[in-house]
# Entry
Amino acid sequence: MKDIKISDCLDNIDPAEINNIEMSDGMKDKFSVERMISVKKIKKIVFDEISVNTDSVNINKKRKKISGRKLAVIISAAVLIISTSVYGMNYFGTLEKYFPGIVQMMKDDVQDVSAKVEKNGVVLTVEAAVNDGIEAIISYNLTMKDGSAFDERIDASIIKLDGLTQADYTDRLDLTDDNKKLEGYINPKLNIENGKSINDYNLTLSITDLITRQHAEEVSKLNLNQIINGVKNQPVELIPDIAQGFVVEKAEVYNGKVKIECGYTYETVRGSGDTPARIRKLSAAPHIIGLKNMKTGEIINPDESKEFNKLSFSINEGTDLSGLNPIISYNKENVVVAGTWEVPIKLKAADVISKDINKTYILADKKMILKKVTVTPLGVYLNGAFVNYDDTELPIGLSAKAYLEDALGRVYLVYNNGQILHLTGSYGETNKSEYGNMEAKFTYSNLEIGEEISDGNRTVKDRRIFIDIDEISSIIVKDIAIPLR
Amino acid sequence: MFYQYILVKALFNFLVLNERCEEMNDRELFEGIKQKDTCCLEQFIEKYTSYIAKIVTLVGGKSLRKQDIEEITADVFISVWQNAEKINLIGNSMKSYLGAIARNKTKTVLYSKKVELLPLNEDILFTDILMSDEIAEKETYELVNRTICEMEEPDREIFIRRYFFFEKIREIAEHLSMNNKTVETRLLRGREKLKSMLVERGIAQ
# Structure
């Protein structure tokens, strides 16, 4: 007996069917996942996995003769690296790495924190911060006191910003190429509606335990023939450390086929950061041809404390299953340096410029009251309210003229493909009341610095960009532009 | 000077070693992955991490932690690496394949966390259907899949956005410049058609 779900029916959709379906614009802007996800970490997980699972990986990195153009790039980049390290700017090096271009915009507002704490041979340094009261970016790093390199798999077990709840911030931490520094940033963002500023909180950056994650596999030594022919729903054998028991949950025979559902139960809680053990595949069994509908790695929770990692497959009745064993793989945390490193941070508020608007606009049957526009080093905020708006979120945009200042201090008007800049965002959730507060923020990261914005000859990438509050011409609600003046 | 040397060396390695892969299009990268060329895989990860993470976040929303998103994203690349030979790339873009894999992997993780992605009354066509065997089950699923994909536009897109990408009705309506009610009505009618079709074929009553 089975439920037919439409969403399950689309599991095997032909990819061509989704070819022309783009993510909606609101969703694109809603999640700034690029900031959150580290490509380096993804690469590490992938290469760890394929190196364990693949006997012969063809490391095919042929060295090619370097072209003159590339050589020129390398030389000029080398000159740049040497000259910037001579002339300083050290304290926002990490910010520059993660927010290239944006730091150029906000460089006057970067606070040099340079606070350190050392414990068990490891130094935590909070480097710099930018804070506009609602959002902040705080860069930090971890190094060995003696300058030695970390294990290449090193990571921090827990990264916290004490003073705020975990939902109020995201973090990122990566190992540098020479393995000598873990560096990253923490990005607190307050819910604007609670009316508080980040400056109202006593914040402490807290890092607990430096760990490595070890990828491992174990092959079950069970005799599936014996289990399937002899028992049903009966725990069979314990696998040390990981599994609590191997169970054949169900074995059905119809039309000469055997459908088998089996798996491991194991304790959900192992190490705090350990990933659940998953059955990834079945070991090679050369005499068995064509396992049907094999599904691996599905984890279900029969109760709070245990998980059941399920594997199901079909096979011809009477097939010899000897040599066919489930393989489980998992990541396990090992503490390399134990301890908690804590650095209190006193953030300074950057200059913000506000302009009272206090105007009411009618949008079809809705009413919007725009109270204030604020320009900060990290973005543009709108404050106001919607009346009789019954949805939780609303796509909202902003048209503004932005300026770019070159190295000689000359100022140019910046266009995006010939158009006035159009920032997009969505305002935070309201409580669906008749009178919903409207708070929207537009971050400069949405500008795709250096990619599309140019005035024809210059790009924004290496220059300072700023928005003049008097040049915000309109806000856009549901694609309708509302002039502010 | 040592630090500067390391930086220059890293830059040199990056530019020289990746030169071959960085100018490849999707098809060439994919052919490289089929040949188990790790340089192509690395370039592929660079190119598509952001896209996959967006799909995972779109489907999973607030139910996923950062670590989950990273794991699923990595899983998609592992899956491409392990199953490259089974993928028959049509055209020159891998985007739709990756989107489909990312969606399915996210859905599996969320089901394991007992997160319902859609209200059950909207997702379930029939409950407790007795399937004679696995083949019958598979055929039923394929029938519903094919019927949705053969729907007239915009119904086809509405159904795929709702049931494949789990987008909210409001988001679908905004993207297609429709009212929420219009989208709801089209979904309702489409579901009724699917139900009638299954009844006509004797799969459900």
